UniProtKB/TrEMBL annotation:
Residues 4-232 form the ABC transporter domain. Keywords: ATP-binding, Cell membrane, Membrane, Nucleotide-binding, Translocase, Transport. GO terms for cellular component: plasma membrane. It is found in: Cell membrane. This is Unannotated protein.
Length: 283
């Protein structure tokens, strides 16, 4: 069974058509990254799946449940999902450990509080008041609150915004651990390297429409895209675009009778492909 099934999802705010007929399936255990520029419709989509926003049309099933239902089954369903929203609510007068302990009480099968604090790298700050945390530390606390309930399905809306590079790498390790536990994860991010490192599949959304669904390595024909081979020939740097870099390298090896000076082979990055899909550099 798929963890998430969406067909024909639509949502407008007045005249703004934020989501215009999205179809999306996410398998159980999959890590899926939703990519798209500011205002593309990512948060709207994700918050509909989380049951925080209403939809205008389409069919949505999240762990087999329609998130627009708010009957007694909704409580049970909430117990099975974890959420890290884009913006955080304030509970500045509690400490980190008090906050996580408080939230753990909402779930029937929570993780251990100390283990969660450790996995987001907040051991040193466990006793600190939330209002004294830095922005990145606050965000780590958000992630802790998302995973404390030991969710089957975790929603992460731009989880690493404000993280320093070290914290991001630690977060990636945490996601790998959750993957190992079989957690399904739907993540939105503006960091293409993050999507590439973590996601089994990515979806590119622009103007409320999904433009492409693929693995990061295959998005937009990336795997077979032309490679740029460059090398030094005397005082000149030469380049050649090719579908077959091996053939070019073989030719050059013969030409130089061995080592090719300053050889590089570059294929388009996920970011190159993504930017070409959404129409270049956005404001
Ligand atoms: P970002 O990367 O900036 O978070 P996003 O892809 O998450 O963007 P959404 O927040 O889903 O985009 O917004 C999609 C569109 O809907 C935008 O044009 C936005 O202005 C509009 N929108 C979002 N929320 C509301 C709201 N509560 N009321 C009115 N318009 C909204």
């Amino acid at each position: 069974m798929n963890a998430i099934e969406v067909t024909g999802l639509s949502k407008s705010y007045g005249q703004v058509k934020a989501v215009r007929g999205i179809d999306l399936s996410i398998a159980t255990g999959e890590i899926f990254a939703l990519l798209g520029p500011n205002g593309a419709g990512k948060t709207t989509t994700v918050e509909i799946l989380e049951g925080f926003r209403s939809r205008d049309g389409g069919d949505v099933r999240v762990l087999g449940f329609d998130p627009s239902n708010d009957g007694s089954a909704a409580r049970e369903w909430r117990n099975r999902i974890g959420i890290v929203l884009q913006s955080t609510s304030d509970s500045g007068d509690l400490t980190v450990i008090e906050t996580i302990e408080h939230f753990s009480g909402y779930y029937s099968n929570p993780r251990k509080v100390e283990e969660v604090i450790n996995s987001v790298g907040l051991d040193d700050k466990a006793g600190s008041l939330i209002r004294k945390l830095s922005g990145g530390q606050r965000r780590r606390l958000d992630v802790a609150l998302g995973i404390i309930g030991n969710p089957e399905l975790l929603f992460l809306d731009e989880p690493t915004t404000g993280f320093d590079p070290q914290a991001r790498r630690a977060f990636w390790e945490l996601i790998e651990k959750l993957r190992g536990d079989g957690t399904t994860i739907l993540l939105t991010t503006h960091y293409l390297d993050e999507a590439e490192a973590l996601a089994d599949r990515v979806g590119v959304i622009n103007d409320g429409v999904i433009l492409a669904l693929s693995t990061p390595s295959e998005l937009g024909g990336r795997r077979t895209a032309q490679a740029l081979v460059s090398w030094r020939d005397g005082s000149e740097i030469k380049t050649e675009s090719t579908d077959n870099p091996t053939a070019v390298v073989n030719k050059l090896t013969t030409h130089f009778n061995g080592d090719i000076p300053e050889l590089t082979i570059i294929r388009p990055s996920l970011e190159d492909i993504y930017l070409s899909m959404i129409g270049g550099v956005h404001e």
